[in-house]
From TrEMBL:
This is AAA family ATPase. Residues 1-28 are annotated as: Disordered. Pfam families: AAA_33. InterPro entries: P-loop_NTPase (IPR027417).
């Protein structure tokens, strides 16, 4: 199964999903593509491989499994704000609330992302979906390189995401979760109606089973 034009490849076994569809739309001589890997009961691809030099964003609700997926499949190429938070938490006094040093964690996260981009690395970036400026930043960088930006979007229910937060022992407020839900809902609606987010050259939709089936997200030389 090949994403022509965008340099993205999905390899492994699987059967067509009931809702699987591919939409194309001409833009600047690149054909953006959608691959829907939901509703396969875990029988989807084991590998997603993108062209070397491309950039990948992983988005979804808090608790949807973004960090888990990246730690398992990104093979050291992931840039995840959760990793930065955990490093800071290990150094901070236990009595100090995270809210106090959250701005410093975010600065450190984006500084690390900037360094990776300036070095020309292919990266897989954790994004909560509410920060559209992050995708815009990555889209500009991809255009500057003459490469593509790809979005991997996890589609899970609010109940599943909340359960994921409880499992990791770290939740978000009701207000923050509602903001995330609206942002991710807009992304899903846009994709499902054939409008890929601005700057994205491909979108891959995953449910929990499809995300669990993935073992590798990486990059290889374009053919």
């Amino acid at each position: 199964m090949t994403f022509h034009h965008t340099g993205a490849y999905a390899t492994g076994t699987g059967i067509p999903a009931q809702r699987a569809r591919a939409r194309t739309r001409r833009r600047h001589s690149v054909t953006p593509l959608l691959r829907d890997l939901r509703e396969r009961g875990g029988r989807g691809p084991r590998t997603l491989a993108f062209a070397l030099g491309d950039l990948v964003v992983v988005s979804g609700l808090p608790g949807s499994g973004k960090s888990t997926l990246m730690r398992r499949a990104a093979d050291g190429l992931g840039i995840d704000s959760q990793d930065v938070r955990e490093r800071w938490e290990a150094r901070m006094p236990r009595f100090l609330p995270y809210a106090v040093y959250r701005p410093l964690v975010r600065i450190a996260h984006y500084a690390g992302l900037r360094r990776a981009l300036r070095a020309g690395h292919s990266v897989i970036v954790h994004d909560c979906g509410t920060q559209s400026w992050v995708r815009n930043w990555l889209a500009r960088e991809a255009r500057r390189r003459g490469r593509a930006l790809h979005l991997i979007l996890l589609d899970v229910t609010s109940a599943t995401a909340r359960a994921g937060q409880r499992e990791r022992g770290r939740g978000v407020s009701g207000y923050a979760f509602a903001r995330h839900r609206r942002a991710v809902g807009r992304l899903l609606h846009s994709v499902e109606t054939g409008r890929l987010p601005r700057g994205c050259d491909s979108v891959t939709l995953l449910d929990r089973d499809a995300a669990g089936a993935l073992r590798t997200i990486g990059f290889r030389d374009a053919d």
